[in-house]
Design a protein that fits this description.
142 residues, globular, 3-stranded antiparallel β-sheet, 4-stranded antiparallel β-sheet, mainly beta
């Protein structure tokens, strides 16, 4: 699958899969910055990524980012829609510093990862009753 990408800053690297078995590509800040303790910052990547039709782009923290940096994606994951692809629709990382100290990040630090997922759009069918049994509530299997 070919994906259109626009670099707002030509010094920013095109995202890459780090190994042959990687399912996600890394995303990095396009500038140095500091995220104060217990605060969220939108960190620019310098990239506009045009999500292909029938897909979404999911953004998540790399598994090492919380452990090594004390940072997480502020809302758990980010979702980039297919129509977020204008010249100023830059991918930004909403990062939360959950530590007691400021965290410095540098241009090119691999902090997040992106993954394209195929999706289906649904049509809702409202019903008056359900035939399934209730399982017992939230968290009932464990």
């Amino acid at each position: 699958m070919k994906v259109r990408i626009f670099r707002k800053d030509q010094t920013v690297a095109i995202p890459a899969y780090q190994t042959g078995g990687s399912v996600a590509f890394d995303l990095s800040p396009s500038e140095d910055t500091t995220i104060p303790s217990r605060e969220v910052r939108l960190i620019p990547t310098g990239l506009v990524i045009c999500t292909p039709p029938g897909h979404m782009l999911l953004i998540a923290a790399r598994s090492s980012t919380p452990l090594k940096r004390g940072l997480m994606i502020a809302n758990g994951i980010g979702i980039v829609d297919q129509d977020y692809c204008g010249p100023d629709d830059e991918i930004k990382l909403a990062l939360y510093n959950f530590t007691d100290k400021p965290v410095e990040i540098k241009k090119g630090d691999r902090l997040a990862q992106g993954l394209f997922l195929k999706l289906d759009r649904v049509e809702w069918e409202e019903v008056k009753t359900l035939d399934s049994k209730t399982r017992g509530g939230f968290g009932s299997t464990g």
